[in-house]
Amino acid sequence: MKKMSKMNELLDLLQGSMQIENGKATVKDIEGLRQNIDKIAAISALEDGRKQSLARYLTRLAALEAGIYPASINDLYLARGRGEIPSSFTVPAMNLRALSFEAARSVFRAAKKLDVGAFIFEIARSEIGYTDQRPSEYATNIFAAAIVEGYTGPVFIQGDHFQVSAKRYAADAETELQIVYDLIDESINAGFFNIDIDTSTLVDLSQATIPAQQALNSQLSAMYTAYIRSVEPKGVTISVGGEIGEVGGQNSTEPELRAYMDGFQDELEKKSPGTVGLSKISIQTGTSHGGVVLPDGTIKEVSVDFNTLLDLSRVARKEYGMAGAVQHGASTLPEDAFGKFVESEACEVHLATNFQNMLFDRLPDALRQEMYAYLDEKHSDDRKADMTDEQFYYKTRKNAIGKFKAELWNLDKAKKDEIGQAWEDQFSKLFTLLAVADTRKFVDQTIKPVLTQPDLKKLMGDDTGEEDVSDLAD
After folding, report:
1. By Cβ atoms counted within 10 A, which residue in 165, 180, 281, 310 is the most buried?
2. Which of 336, 357, 356, 350 is nearest to 429 (CA)?
3. Dist CA 217 CA 223 (whole Å)
4. Do 105 and 189 belong together in one domain?
5. DSSP string covering 152-190, please?
6. Is the pTM of this model over 0.90?
């Protein structure tokens, strides 16, 4: 008997709902596809080699056939910068660290319910490492989730904090810069058409003037932007974001924004005349990634400088044509803060840690304790002398996500449904607070379909191994 090809094995799992003939994919039964695409997503996440790559390729083809395509939010953001789209909503950018397929399903259910079009899925360079999710796996989870939930149209996937390590840049600048180049290539191939370049780690506060402090940040941001423009798919203008200050550091100022942007625009014009620049800019307003953990495991309240957020959003929009300023490290803030992001005209807010907290709160006790035992063994160096157990596990438990990916995938259906419903309720609440309900019309108005075909060769061999990301932001 002739051995079945790996592609035919995958198609067989879809039970005739999809076929490929002469290189052309056709969905024959959309309901059958929705009922079975989770099997392909699981292979993408848990297996390796050619079968894994084919699962990712097949999911992308299936999504395109189902009316789902990766897109850049750039045109919507620039329309906002021109005043053609109101500044009365803040786009949520959500980092899905664990159970990404289930989490994305929850996002799409909430988005359909509220007619939300302006929302972003993202993952940071650091998260790619400790969650064991390369860009193509992350994108596959999202496309498969959209298929299951019957969501159609543009899907915005973003590389968050594609960050240069200051420590490794000082030791070997060329190698560190190349790692980010390679990550950009890998991510674009996977369908990430939104990329936040973060070279704010290289801001040099020892310099006497603010332009000098921001000079290297501006230069490298322009260098990466020019590169992105040279490799982005035909017909797509990738949304590129910049950053002027590390989250958790000193609050950003208007002179810093102007120095960075003026330097960036000058550098970009030198490197690639006439090239489209940034769509947004990330600033620091008093938050920190994950929040500050108190000895009892609760999160310390922080004071966000909303006046700075408003002022810099307006400068970014009115003087540089961008959508506005971006707020990081916000998911653990109290709910009454989210409406203030809208009032402060923030164009985007990044959310991650609270979704992770909701997962850990609902895990079976045995699995959670197994994950904590792993942290005790493998991450004991991260435990400071004055840390309580609550502080240690809260700060480090993200590092167990990748190691326990299979166990999380294989949670029983009732438990995953419980977690998924909690997430859906939270996403619905956030979408309402951030005023993105009924924003599908703005997306339809500004985002034109560009159906980019996946390249199987570029989805293969992307396992670059585990890197030390301990000094990178989430």
Report:
1. 281
2. 336
3. 10
4. yes
5. -EEEEEEEEEEE--HHHHHH-HHHHHHHHHHHHHHHHHH
6. yes
